[in-house]
Amino acid sequence: MNGQILVVNPNCLQAVTDSMSEALEGFRCEGGPEIRCETLKSGPPGIETQAHVDAAAVKLAEWLGEKPERKRVDALVVACFSDPGVAALREALKAPVLGIGEASYLTAAALTERFGVIAILERSIPRHRRAQRALGLEHKVAGELALELAVSELQDEATTWKRLVGVGTELRKNHGAGALILGCAGMARYRTRLEDKLGVPVIDPTQSAVAMALGLVLAKSDALVLEARH
Amino acid sequence: MNGQILVVNPNCLQAVTDSMSEALEGFRCEGGPEIRCETLKSGPPGIETQAHVDAAAVKLAEWLGEKPERKRVDALVVACFSDPGVAALREALKAPVLGIGEASYLTAAALTERFGVIAILERSIPRHRRAQRALGLEHKVAGELALELAVSELQDEATTWKRLVGVGTELRKNHGAGALILGCAGMARYRTRLEDKLGVPVIDPTQSAVAMALGLVLAKSDALVLEARH
Amino acid sequence: MNGQILVVNPNCLQAVTDSMSEALEGFRCEGGPEIRCETLKSGPPGIETQAHVDAAAVKLAEWLGEKPERKRVDALVVACFSDPGVAALREALKAPVLGIGEASYLTAAALTERFGVIAILERSIPRHRRAQRALGLEHKVAGELALELAVSELQDEATTWKRLVGVGTELRKNHGAGALILGCAGMARYRTRLEDKLGVPVIDPTQSAVAMALGLVLAKSDALVLEARH
Amino acid sequence: MNGQILVVNPNCLQAVTDSMSEALEGFRCEGGPEIRCETLKSGPPGIETQAHVDAAAVKLAEWLGEKPERKRVDALVVACFSDPGVAALREALKAPVLGIGEASYLTAAALTERFGVIAILERSIPRHRRAQRALGLEHKVAGELALELAVSELQDEATTWKRLVGVGTELRKNHGAGALILGCAGMARYRTRLEDKLGVPVIDPTQSAVAMALGLVLAKSDALVLEARH
Amino acid sequence: MNGQILVVNPNCLQAVTDSMSEALEGFRCEGGPEIRCETLKSGPPGIETQAHVDAAAVKLAEWLGEKPERKRVDALVVACFSDPGVAALREALKAPVLGIGEASYLTAAALTERFGVIAILERSIPRHRRAQRALGLEHKVAGELALELAVSELQDEATTWKRLVGVGTELRKNHGAGALILGCAGMARYRTRLEDKLGVPVIDPTQSAVAMALGLVLAKSDALVLEARH
Amino acid sequence: MNGQILVVNPNCLQAVTDSMSEALEGFRCEGGPEIRCETLKSGPPGIETQAHVDAAAVKLAEWLGEKPERKRVDALVVACFSDPGVAALREALKAPVLGIGEASYLTAAALTERFGVIAILERSIPRHRRAQRALGLEHKVAGELALELAVSELQDEATTWKRLVGVGTELRKNHGAGALILGCAGMARYRTRLEDKLGVPVIDPTQSAVAMALGLVLAKSDALVLEARH
Fold first, then answer.
1. Does residue D171 share a domain with residue D147?
2. C136 in contact with B at a CB cutoff of 8 Å?
3. d(CA C187, CA F116)
């Protein structure tokens, strides 16, 4: 047993969790920690307002307490770009708790001077701005633009792809973004294609948080090796 | 072949590179990218002044150009806490270039409200402060304190350990640090012990940068899987 | 009928609401808006952790929806220093929503260069710091110190008074605070005494939010007068 | 007698003071403090340049000293958006001194993430920006735009109204302002109409400062009640 | 005629102006601009409060208008550390207007990471902090400490010197100041001695503003040379 | 002998050094310090990338060590807008070391609320932004625009002049710049003409650094005078 990273999808849609888990396939390596994705069944179907964020936070706290093994994980990743419940979970858990919103901003800041953010909805942008400011990374945000697509349009890959390219190009060319963040947990499947198309790094937030979690867990196992030798 | 992460130690001491490579053992996983550590043979024996940082930057640029395969890596990690040459290498390389100083600050910011930094030398603190401010993370630094040990003392593990515990305790208790960064590439072997002793996460900067690099490389391979399925 | 200000106490203790209402007696003026205080009966008994804050936020959202007249108020004041639910309530209500934490920081900033904050518990200080930074008023905080009294001690007025004077004096003399904020909804009864004792303005957060709300409601009624005349 | 709030109009135009006093009618409540408006007869006819601000500051200091009862007020409000003399008056007076510029920024920050400012003249904007930055609220200013009307045009209500609607719409729609500040002491009569027209809170600066002053005075009287009961 | 720099001492003491002029002796060079020092005879005897600053600002505006040649200077230096009237004079004069407070902060920032400020009086420190923040140089202030000497003590050179050394040593050693600013127009005569004693640059504010003014004037004359040649 | 200011041009072009020296003619005054300009013969022919900056930094450190008299100067000015090697030279030299980039930003901040920067190349702007932020003067930058001229075009004075006027006008009118900085060491000859054309101060960075250096050296000589008299 090499540790466990638990990724919780705070909306109740199993399909989103499945696609998230697929996007993390590459992070599951022989001898590395188990990466398990769970759906917060009591969560809202989507997290689009501050009320959804608050509701998800409370449900996550309950969920954590429901099964003792959830508190025994080596790292917990909350897979919603608005980072619901992350502050409270940190008070309840000894292990590291990572929010994918925060992780993506911090990863982008490690790659470039200024990055862009692609939001799904215009109305989420003020909420994201609060998070960017709280971290101290406001000055690194080249711009944030919304796809502003209806749910039905989002389900159409061709339409979504066209908007992603449009908005990403605008952020890269006119705002000077040196990297782009997909501002939502469910767009990993466009990551590589968009990166190839636009020629700048594109960050999937769930992947960036799991990468950090993986590092923290692997560092631990490695330490044992070092201890043994020295 | 699953990609390659190249970690370059910008000081010329092979022993430091070897110990670094050992500390990264846990990050080498079956099916994951190769993690290769190289010594910058033309580098200074230690990087303690701004002149050393500048010199290492130039030597790193030359080193990068010497062998074409170095430019073909999937991620480059510069393993010195002062991040020499990182800005210039980013201009020269398409692949992501990570500095371990920056990566450690950003990783600490993903874990806690305020973190502490343990420097080797007092005189490096203003240089570190410049980097913290450049990132925008000044407000998250609970404090930075130096071990202020002579080279001979640093070679004595018992003395170093005692100082690490002293300085770390001061940062945690009196400065309110919720995590600690080892402000130097060569102290990974104390990481777990210090974490266990002090009860807060302790971050080794090389590990935090390699974790980010690993994430970026694994994300890529994963994307192929996704592409295939969709 | 001249409008209504609804003050909701997000903890479930009616005694706290009663004392709050008493402290607002002076704000109820002939011809002015009704100031009504309600207890969030489903709220936690005290709000001391981020989990309590999140829980209160959700309960407040439910509470708002329970009775249609709650949405018809002219201003809503959330009377907990951690401002639970304020962001979400703003999305749900057309009328202004004021958090007493924010209102107290903003009122203090209107009075002095640098103010001090008296917290009940040490562990709330990082949470408060997040709020101060979010507003942009970090640079105006001379310091924040906790009473750090047990619940039983808090119920003893003599002990509480002694600590208030001690901590307040420290903030005024050693930190240079030109005004003090009582960092909790339930300490209004010490306000005048402390102001007289220490010689600097002492701000009760609930009063400062209700003052702002009163201003917004009175401005409206006044506008009618103006409209009529012009 | 329940205390007194003295509002001083630092320009010498009695008509401006009268209209100010009218706009405060709603704030005068039975049993509440007297709200008295005075004209600074020695003041400049308008405050449009930094020289006017400096001149008004000096005249205000003289004015304060002229009659001893002026120093006995419970709160003093300086009713010019550039807050002339506020820093000096705070040194001379024990009672709170509120500047209407500061009070309006702080009140807007209590209502919304980002607010807009409607200036009369373009050339005042840099002066306002200094004040916004001094408070730490720069990041909350969605934008500031000037009416840029000549004095004769300002006297024409229809023209002024049209410009107010144009500039306000621009700030709300294109700059994302969630509230608007009327950046001048003499525009209260447009407040309600503009609020109704644009659907976001519109703040009259004099009203916002008087609301804060009212709160501070009412809190005091209330404290007596509390003292008596406990 | 090679241009003229006019230095105005905004307090009414001719002795202060004389000593200022002496301290500028080295800046008067053959072929360079005339450096003329004038006393603001209508100014207050000392500038210790915000009211003094405001009064001096108004008197300076009047003074400027009194003689047309004052508006024909090539640069104007206001020689009081609180920079009275500088913002207004900039609106009235085409030529550059330099405040010695601002100039000293900016010069110190060109020399070192963090500087210390030696104030005369404790109560001026909040006023200075406003200026440091307005410039954006707060983060470069290692600390500010006051001599806190009575006027009679200030006239005693031995006592003043002893306090300067004490306060300067504290700023250098315990606050990490890499340069020191004499926070008052009248202490130039201690500059070299203090620099020699403490081993860090010591900045006299009047000299730093005149140096900038000199540069602006000399640049102009030089341009003629260049024009001629090219 | 009255001291010496050494200005080093870190690119290897003697013609640039010569034109620099000419632009400093006005700063050489009878009885004042010698102002000597040297070419860094080992430097790159131009400094356009971060790699050039790093290379110049190392060459400057070597250059400083080559001749003992270089360390005996009274002030050293590094005449490249990217300030290569300045941090390291400060560690190696007791005398003040001034970077012309920093000096120009600080001088502009002494003259106006918001200034504009004219870059040669678009790709240098992120590098400049890092420096502006490091100083804390980001909020004073009204905008930065690039001439974006090819080397051959830069050699054509008419073309360069036209672009300078175009870009300068844009910064002044649309960005509200109250002063302009020539963001390159080699454009002094356009300074006066541009200032006259645009009606705002135009700052040549080398001149602004030499002005500061001159001030520091003259202050010293002056001190001797004062010492003698007192």
1. yes
2. no
3. 51
Query: D173: domain CATH number?
Result: 3.40.50.12500
Domain that holds residue A143: 102-204
Domain count, chain F: 2
Say which residue the tokens 């010329």 belong to.
Answer: B12
* Contacting partners of chain E (3+ CB pairs under 8 A): B, C, D, F
Do residues E83 and E164 share a domain?
no
The chain-wide mean pLDDT, for chain C, equals 92
Amino acid letter for position F110: A
Q: Looking at the domain assignment, is residue B69 inside a domain? A: yes
Do B72 and B121 fall within a single domain? no
Per-residue model confidence (pLDDT) at position B200: 94
Looking at the complex, report in whole angstroms how far the Cα of residue A141 sits from the nearest Cα belonging to chain B.
12
Chain E positions in Cβ-Cβ contact with residue C139 (cut-off 8 Å) = 133, 138
| C159 and C76 assigned to the same domain | no
The verdict on residue B34 lying in a domain is yes
**Is there a single domain that holds both residue B65 and residue B114?**
no
| Cβ within 8 Å, pair A191-B221 | no
Q: Please state whether the predicted TM-score (pTM) of the whole model is above 0.90.
A: yes
The SS3 assignment for E71 reads helix
Lowest mean pLDDT among A103-107, B93-97, D152-156, D191-195: D152-156
What is the length of chain E?
A: 230
Domain end marker among B100, B120, B136: B100
User: Across chain C, where does the E strand assignment appear?
Assistant: 4-9, 34-39, 75-78, 97-99, 115-119, 141-146, 180-183, 202-203
B219 domain residue, yes or no = no
Q: Which residues of F28-44 are buried (b: 16+ CB within 10 A; e: fewer)?
A: bbeebbebebbbbeebb
Boundary of a domain, candidates E99, E128, E163:
E99
What local confidence, expressed as pLDDT, does residue C219 receive? 87
| Closest CA–CA distance from residue E206 to any residue of chain B (Å) | 29
Cβ of B100 under 8 Å from any chain F Cβ? no
Q: Which residue in C1, C21, C2, C156 sits closest to C79, CA to CA? A: C21
Residues F133, F96: one domain? no
Q: Does E157 touch chain B (CB under 8 A)?
A: no
CB-CB contact of E11 with E20 (8 Å): no
Same domain, F22 and F38: yes
Chains D and F touch (3+ CB pairs under 8 A): yes
* Nearest in space to C144 (alpha carbons), one of C166, C177, C111: C177
Full 3-state SS string of chain F: CCCEEEEEECCCCHHHHHHHHHHCHHHCCECCCEEEEEECCCCCCCCCCHHHHHHHHHHHHHHHHHCHHHHHCCEEEECCCCCCCHHHHHHHCCCCEEEHHHHHHHHHHCCCCCEEEEECCHHHHHHHHHHHHHHCCHHHEEEEEECCCCHHHHHCHHHHHHHHHHHHHHHHHCCCCCCEEEECCCCHHHHHHHHHHHCCCEECHHHHHHHHHHHHHHHHHHHHHHHHHC
Residue E228 lies in a domain: no
Gap from E184 CA to chain C (nearest CA, Å): 22
Under 8 Å between Cβ of A216 and B209: no
Spatial strand order of the sheet with E180-182 comes to E141-146, E115-119, E180-182, E202-203
Average pLDDT per run of 10 along chain C, which is 230 residues long? 90 93 90 94 92 97 95 96 96 95 97 96 92 94 94 87 98 96 92 95 96 91 50
Q: Which residues contact B209 (CB under 8 A, 6 or more apart)?
A: A110, B77, B79, B98, B99, B100, B102, B103, B104
Together in a domain, F216 and F145: no
- Any contact of C with F, at least 3 CB pairs below 8 A? no
ipTM score for this prediction: 0.92
Assess F221–B contact: CB distance below 8 Å, yes or no: no
Structure-token match 């300078």, residue found: F164
- Smallest CA–CA separation between D51 and chain E, in Å? 5
